[in-house]
Each structure stands twice: as C-alpha cells, then as structure tokens.
TrEMBL record:
GO molecular function, one term: catalytic activity
Organism for this UniProt entry: Daucus carota subsp. sativus (Carrot)
Protein name: Haloacid dehalogenase-like hydrolase domain-containing protein Sgpp
UniProt superkingdom: Eukaryota
Cofactor(s) required for function per UniProt: Mg(2+)
A Pfam family hit: HAD_2
Amino acid sequence: MTDSIDSTSLSSLVPLEAVLFDIDGTLCDSDPLHFYAFQEMFAKIGFNDGVPITEEFFVKNIAGKHNQDIGNFLFPDDHAKGVKFMEDKEEVFRRMAKEQIKPINGLDKLTKWIKDRGLRRAAVTNAPRENAEMMISLLRLSDFFEYVIIGSDCERAKPFPEPYLKALELLKVSKDHTFICEDSVSGITAGVAAGMPVVGLTTRNPEHLLKTAKPALLIKDYADPQLWAALEEIDRKTGASTGSA
C-alpha cells in the first residue's frame, strides 16, 4: 500500500458521474510485454550497439508516451524509420499480449462498483486503436466502455489534456464529477491538466516519479484499501446528498 496524497479530493466529486481509464498498466499489467517487445526489436536492429535497454531507460523515455513521440525520440533523423519500427514493435506486442494479458488485481470489483452505480465510462489511451481494442476485448470489457478515445484521434496526445477533454465531451459529463485511473507520469499529467483528480497506480512506474505529476491518490492496485475508503466516502456522501440511508 502506498502513501495517500489527497484521497478527500475524490469525495468532492459527488455526485460522481463518470470514471475514465487508461489501458496499458491501468487495466492490465502490459508494460513488461511492451518492454520485451522493444528489447526484441532493438536486438534485431542492433540498437545501442547491441546492449539491451534497461527498465530505467524504458520508464524514462517510452512508458506512457505516444508512438509518434517514441519513434521521433528513437530515430530523430528518420521519421519513416520510426513509424515502421513502431508498427513492427506493436505486432510483436500483440502476439505476446494474446497469450499473457491479465487484469490488474481488483479490476473486476471496481468495474462492478461503477456499473452498479450507473456511472459513465470511457477508455483513454495513447496506444494504437488495434492494441486498445484487442486488450479491452481480451479483458472482456468491450461492453463496459462506452467509448475508446485514442491519442492519435486528438490534436495532441497525452501528456496533453485533449484526449481526456474529448472523453468528457463524448460522455457529456463534467470534469467536476469525474475521476481518472492512470499509471504513468504522462497520463497523470494529462488528467490533471484536464482538471480532474487522478488515481495513480504504481503498477510498474516508480512512486516518486508518479508523485511529481500530482495524482490525488496513489494505490498499488484496485484492491488497495485506500481506494475503497475513498469510494465508500463517495457512497456515504452520495447517500447523504440524496437523503437515502
């Protein structure tokens, strides 16, 4: 369990209208598969003189970022090469994911809580649409999400707020009554910039880095008691505001 930052900010959202989710590292622990896919691709092209990338390099330069930005970072002088490299890398990732993808612990409990309360929901991701829809399908959440917003569909992807602002627009909900679940600095930054509290998951990215993006709460997974204390407070305030027990 991680240190609470400001869980009270979630109860200030009452009446809660919607919950938005990132996908990679937030619905499923897919970062290791992306890491292995990059390692496999880098080995093929002799990147970094054949020395494998470290997890530190991956977290700092790749995790949570949009593919176009990653391609430009890796191949700053050859845009076409960056595009092709990332397309090939995603094929490797999808091959791995079909065999190995698993939901974050407690996700089923949280999605049931959301459905039982009739809240709106959308997935908001920098992943390519083919990846996003495949992972949502493998996790059996295709009927759960009303919309899947892709960074490439927006003027600017995360860490800019546009993808989350588009989700609010599509769902016709207010930022003052919506929270976000994210696992990367890029994603948390986007959510905070969009004006919403973000529940950050320490799935793979270091806690001290996530804190720099100012999440409202940091949790290990969706079974974390801190999350459920915050949700119970939302239920309590919702009951009080409606005059029910």
